[in-house]
Amino acid sequence: RELSEMDAEDELDLAEMEKLKKTERACLEMLKKYDFTEWELVEWSEQQAVFNFLYDSVTLTVVFGPQIDGEFFAAHPSRSIIRLDFESFLDEEQAPPSSCLVQKLIFQFIESRGSWQEKCPTLCYLPQALFDISLVVNRCKILGEELEFLQRWGAKFHLLETDIKQTEVKLLFSSSVAFAKFELTLALSRDYPSAVLPFRVQTHIGNIGEKEIAAVLSRVPAGHHYLQRIVISIHKNLLQGPR
Fold first, then answer.
1. What is the pLDDT of residue 10?
2. Within 10 Å of residue 186's Cβ, how many Cβ atoms?
3. Rounded Cα distance, 155 and 57, in Å
4. Cα–Cα dist 186/170, whole Å
5. What is the extent of the structural domain holding 93?
């Protein structure tokens, strides 16, 4: 008799697991409909869902509450959301400065939104939250790639040095042809690349200063690869010959 009870329990456990797997698959399909997946689902259980972003350096844990009567998500009764916890797993001691900057901007965005639980009280709101985070992660990831590009190929654009401190990027340009050497410091924020970048200029040699840089930057529209386009435009308009 004991054996048959254990068998029955095992069957119930298996049925429960199968049900959970079906729910997970259905929820995953629903989430993927948003078609912008900078996230990877690493866990979906009765208690919580866990998502990783940006090469597993940012984790979002969504803690579930009770089911909600009359509300459905992926053809299953929807659940309330008690908490959304964000955590960084970037080793700032070992990571390159560009990765630290990217991480800072992502968390700047996360903190700017206030209470995520208020914006995402039930499962039905989760796809939009994942979409919003993905959008920022994607922009910041591209920024990281731009910084790596400038650090590797900057010399082609008379860019001697790319220095990153906190959320500022300092670009040191030098051109013997234009008889110019100056530092351009750009202040980045979570809005990159959709907002114009505040900047400072320090002239070391020659007469390229704030006025000349402002004239060039005013012709570079914000948008995709903004930082890269700024560097290319400065090189093209100010560093090719005498001024």
1. 66
2. 18
3. 30
4. 6
5. 39-145
Of 145, 174, 201, the position where a domain reaches its end is 145
131 with 162, same domain?
no
Residues 65, 163: one domain?
no
Q: Which residues of 126-142 are buried (b: 16+ CB within 10 A; e: fewer)?
A: bbebbbbbbebbebbbb
Q: How far is CA 86 from the centre of its chain?
A: 13
Count of residues making up the chain: 243
For the entire predicted model, the pTM comes to 0.81
Give the pLDDT confidence score for residue 97 in this predicted structure: 92
Based on the structure, what is the number of domains in the chain? 2
Tokens 């629903």, residue located: 30
54, 129: one domain: yes
Stretch 169-196: mean pLDDT: 94
Is 173 in contact with 184 (CB distance < 8 Å)?
Answer: yes
Q: What is the DSSP annotation of 151-195?
A: HHHGGGGTEEEEEEETTEEEEEEEETTTTEEEEEEEE--TTTTSS
CA 1 to chain centre: 57
How far, in Å, CA of 35 to CA of 131, rounded? 9
Q: Dihedrals φ, ψ of 77, to 5°?
A: -55, 130
Distances in whole angstroms, Cα of residue 45 to Cα of each of 72, 79, 101, 136, 228:
17, 12, 33, 27, 43
